[in-house]
């Protein structure tokens, strides 16, 4: 196994960081450079990265989202946003229409942002540091828009807390290969694999997991989805719904 694959397959999420550790500007630049070199559809680079170092802004993030105190206690917090603003400005300069109705442009920009985040995460771990993605930023989108003066056509996707871990974490078991990897066609699910995964995770015994994997997501999808994202994309002029003429 080469060093890159070893790094990828030993990924762990860290949430406890040394508050006295300061990420160097060189390390941050390396992480950002790796993120910016991520693959992008048509080289559109439909994302932006907002580097949050201001303690007051990060404190406000934690006030909004108290379940993730590491946003404040990590060395730096990066916010990855789907960004269709730049190309809106291009269309304005070129005096052309800017048609981003429907889901495809948003999916494209979200994918670009996610790929950049993953590159940043891998770069972070290659430096011997730790990180954890934060998808719950999508729970308070209007507040983030105001706090960070986001323009139209921009949607926060996820954050990334980066720092020096102070608690060692075990590599978390993933779903069995048979449930995720398909060859040539989609294979019907053998539910026994899911039941075995419940058992595996019980034995893994992560303290923050209070429910079986199956129960956690049965409960999650039984609730109403986060409609705030739907509303926010409309106010941001992303994925607009066409009206009848």
UniProtKB/TrEMBL annotation:
It holds the Pfam family Nitroreductase. One of its GO terms (molecular function) is oxidoreductase activity. Signal peptide: none annotated. InterPro entries: Flavin_OxRdtase_Frp, Nitroreductase, Nitroreductase-like. The keyword Oxidoreductase applies. Keywords: Flavoprotein, FMN, NADP, Oxidoreductase. Residues 9-163 form the Nitroreductase domain. It comes from the Bacteria. Belongs to the flavin oxidoreductase frp family. This is Nitroreductase domain-containing protein. The lineage of its organism: Bacteria, Bacillati, Bacillota, Bacilli, Lactobacillales.
């Amino acid at each position: 196994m080469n060093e890159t694959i070893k790094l990828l397959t030993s990924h762990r999420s860290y949430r406890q960081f040394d508050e006295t550790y300061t990420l160097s500007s060189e390390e941050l630049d390396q992480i950002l450079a790796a993120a910016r070199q991520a693959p992008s559809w048509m080289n559109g680079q439909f994302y932006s990265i907002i580097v949050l170092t201001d303690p007051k802004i990060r404190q406000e993030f934690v006030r909004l989202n108290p379940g993730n105190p590491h946003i404040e206690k990590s060395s730096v917090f990066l916010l990855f946003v789907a960004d269709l603003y730049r190309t809106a400005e291009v269309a304005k300069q070129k005096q052309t229409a800017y048609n981003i109705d429907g889901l495809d442009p948003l999916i494209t920009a979200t994918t670009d942002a996610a790929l950049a985040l993953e590159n940043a995460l891998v770069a972070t771990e290659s430096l011997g540091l730790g990180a954890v993605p934060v998808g719950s930023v999508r729970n308070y989108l209007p507040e983030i828009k105001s706090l960070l003066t986001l323009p139209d056509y921009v949607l926060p996707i996820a954050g990334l807390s980066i720092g020096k871990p102070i608690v060692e974490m075990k590599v978390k078991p993933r779903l069995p290969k048979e449930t995720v990897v398909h060859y040539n066609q989609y294979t019907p699910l053998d539910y026994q694999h899911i039941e075995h995964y419940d058992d595996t995770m019980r034995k893994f015994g992560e303290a923050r997991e209070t429910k079986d994997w199956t129960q956690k997501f049965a409960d999650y999808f039984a609730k109403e989805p986060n409609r705030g994202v739907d509303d926010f994309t409309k106010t941001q002029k992303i994925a607009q719904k066409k009206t009848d003429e």
